[in-house]
Amino acid sequence: MNYTQQQLDEFKREFALRRKRQLMVAIPFVLVIVGFAVFARFAEGGGDRLGGVSLGVFFAFFFTLIAGVLMFSFRNWRCPACGRYLGRGMSPRFCSKCGVALQ
Length: 103
What we know:
Number of strands: 2
Shape: elongated
Number of domains: 1
């Protein structure tokens, strides 16, 4: 499809916003995963409680967090031109589905 220069510029601007949102979610999420792994390793009493809360509660929170981040990512990480998922890379130069330049 042929786009005007204004549309192409808007696609790049929108992609930059989506990438920024993706990073704003991904970086803290990775820190939560690392923190959870460290705390779970040093749980009280041989591993059944952490900070007075059972690990079952922590696991429920952790998996809910994972589901939320995945749902956000699948909605956010889409091509601004065609709306298709951009894949796992964080810096695609163009959409592999429609070919629109993203950067």
